[in-house]
C-alpha cells in the first residue's frame, strides 16, 4: 500500500513540476495499532464502538492532528474525502452557517444548509443516548491551501479553487442537483472550520445497504406521504418485512427520537451492515441538517413513536435518566461538547431545546402507556437478551 502511494507521489510531483504547481510530499506510515484501524476492528453487531472504548478518544485526537495527505471531492455539497498520514480516512464537511443563525422558516428541509456543527453535536448526542450508531466526528480547522489545495491530486477539485475579493482562499462545489443554497466556502484567509467524520471500513469488507425510511418525507414542495395522512400507518408497517421481525421497528423509533431531539427532518434513508443480518443496528449517518431551529419542535419527526406507541426499554430508561436534574441532557451535552476543539459547537438555545424536546418525547410515551399500558408500549430489547433474558424473535439473514 505504501509503495503504491510513494510511486503515485513521485509521479504527481513530476507532473506538478511540469505544470508549475506546488504539491506537498508527505511521509506515510501504516501502523496496525492506528486508532482508525482499531475502530474498524471494534465494530460489532450492537454498536460502532464500546461504551468506554479509550480508542475513540484517540481516534478523535488523531482526526484533529494528523496531517492530510490526500483529498478527493466526495459527491456534492462541498464535502471532501480526506486521507491522513496514518492511512485513516475522514469525511470533511466545511462550515456553511454561523452557529447563531436559525434556519429561515420558509426553507424546505431539503434545501437547508448542511451544518458541520450539527454533525459534531449529533455524534455527541448519539453517544450520550448510548446508541453509538454515529461514526466518531470531531471539529478541525483546516488550512484550505496547505491541507486541501496542495494535498489534492484531483484536477476537478483544483479547478474549483479561487481567491475572493477579500483575499481569502475559497472553493465551490460542482453539484448535480439541489444546489440552490450551495455556493462557495472560504477560509479566513486560509483557515476553514469543518467536521471530520471517521470513515467506516470500505464496502468490500463491510458491505452496507441503504434502505428507504418508512417515514420518509416527500422531497417536493407539495407532496404528502402516506404516514402524514393515515394515522394507522404503523399497522401497515408492522406487517411488512423486515419491520415484522426483531428490533427493526424499535430501531426506527430510536432513530426518530434521535432526529426529533435535534430537529432533523432529512432522514430519507438509513443504512445497515449486511453482515449483522436484520437484527443489526441502524447507522445514523448524515446529521448535518439537525440543529437548524432551536425555537421550533417539529412533532412530525416523532411520528414513528407516536403512531406505533412502542419504545425499547433501554432507550426509555436512558431518556428518563437524562430528564433528571442531576443528568440533564443539556448539561451532559454541554460537558461532552467541551471535548471538541470547536467548542461550544452548539449555542445555549439549542442545548436548552434538547431538554424541552426530551420532555415532549417522555410525554408522548406517557400518553401511549395511558392508552395501552406499560406492557404494551415498553419492549425489552436485545441489550436485555445479552444479560440472559429470553431473546426476542429475530431473523438472521445469512
Ligand atoms: N463516516 C462515514 N463512513 C463511511 N461512509 C460514510 C460516512 N459518512 C457518510 N458516508 C456515506 O456517504 C454518503 C453521503 O454522506 P452524507 O449523506 O453525510 O453527505 P451528503 O452531503 O448529505 O450527501 P448525499 O446528498 O449524497 O446524501 C452517506 O449516505 C454514506 O453512505
Ligand atoms: Mn445525505
Automatic annotation (TrEMBL):
Residues reported to bind Mn(2+): 286
Cofactor needs: Mn(2+)
Residues engaged in binding ATP: 93, 197-200, 271, 286
InterPro entries per record: FAM20, FAM20_C
A Gene Ontology BP annotation from the UniProt entry: enamel mineralization
Any Pfam family the entry gives: Fam20C
PANTHER family: DENTIN MATRIX PROTEIN 4 PROTEIN FAM20 (PTHR12450), PSEUDOKINASE FAM20A (PTHR12450:SF12)
Name recorded for this polypeptide: FAM20 C-terminal domain-containing protein
Organism, as annotated: Denticeps clupeoides
Amino acid at each position: 500500500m505504501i509503495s503504491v502511494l510513494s510511486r503515485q507521489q513521485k509521479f504527481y510531483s513530476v507532473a506538478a513540476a511540469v505544470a508549475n504547481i506546488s504539491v506537498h510530499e508527505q511521509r506515510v506510515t501504516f501502523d496496525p495499532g492506528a486508532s482508525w484501524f482499531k475502530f474498524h476492528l471494534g465494530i460489532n453487531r450492537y454498536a460502532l464502538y464500546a461504551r468506554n472504548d479509550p480508542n475513540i478518544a484517540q481516534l478523535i485526537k488523531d482526526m484533529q492532528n494528523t496531517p492530510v495527505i490526500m483529498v478527493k471531492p466526495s459527491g456534492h455539497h462541498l464535502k471532501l474525502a480526506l486521507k491522513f498520514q496514518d492511512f485513516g480516512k475522514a469525511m470533511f464537511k466545511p462550515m456553511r452557517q454561523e452557529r447563531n443563525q436559525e434556519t429561515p422558516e420558509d426553507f424546505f428541509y431539503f434545501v437547508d444548509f448542511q451544518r458541520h456543527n450539527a454533525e459534531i453535536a449529533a455524534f455527541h448526542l448519539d453517544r450520550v443516548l448510548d446508541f453509538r450508531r454515529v461514526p466518531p466526528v470531531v471539529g478541525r480547522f483546516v488550512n484550505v491551501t496547505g491541507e486541501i489545495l496542495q494535498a489534492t491530486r484531483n484536477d476537478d477539485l483544483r479547478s474549483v479553487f479561487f481567491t475572493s475579493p477579500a483575499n481569502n482562499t475559497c472553493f465551490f462545489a460542482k453539484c448535480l442537483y439541489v444546489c440552490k443554497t450551495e455556493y462557495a466556502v472560504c477560509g479566513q484567509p486560509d483557515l476553514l472550520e469543518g467536521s471530520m467524520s471517521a470513515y467506516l471500513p470500505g464496502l468490500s469488507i463491510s458491505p452496507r445497504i441503504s434502505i428507504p425510511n418508512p417515514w420518509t418525507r416527500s422531497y417536493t414542495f407539495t407532496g404528502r406521504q402516506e404516514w402524514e395522512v393515515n394515522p394507522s400507518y404503523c399497522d401497515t408497517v408492522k406487517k411488512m418485512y423486515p419491520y415484522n421481525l426483531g428490533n427493526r421497528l424499535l430501531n426506527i423509533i430510536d432513530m426518530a427520537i434521535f432526529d426529533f431531539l435535534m430537529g432533523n427532518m432529512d432522514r430519507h434513508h438509513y443504512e445497515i451492515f449486511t453482515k449483522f443480518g436484520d437484527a443489526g443496528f441502524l447507522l445514523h449517518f448524515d446529521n448535518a441538517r439537525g440543529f437548524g431551529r432551536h425555537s421550533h419542535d417539529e412533532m412530525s419527526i416523532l411520528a414513528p413513536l407516536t403512531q406505533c406507541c412502542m419504545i425499547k426499554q433501554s432507550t426509555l430508561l436512558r431518556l428518563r435518566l437524562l430528564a433528571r436534574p442531576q443528568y440533564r441532557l443539556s448539561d451532559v451535552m454541554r460537558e461532552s461538547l467541551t471535548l471538541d476543539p470547536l467548542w461550544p459547537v452548539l449555542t445555549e438555545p439549542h442545548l436548552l431545546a434538547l431538554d424541552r424536546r426530551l420532555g415532549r418525547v417522555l410525554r408522548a410515551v406517557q400518553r401511549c402507556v395511558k392508552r395501552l399500558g406499560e406492557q404494551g408500549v415498553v419492549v425489552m430489547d436485545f441489550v436485555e437478551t445479552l444479560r440472559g433474558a429470553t431473546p426476542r424473535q429475530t431473523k438472521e439473514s445469512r
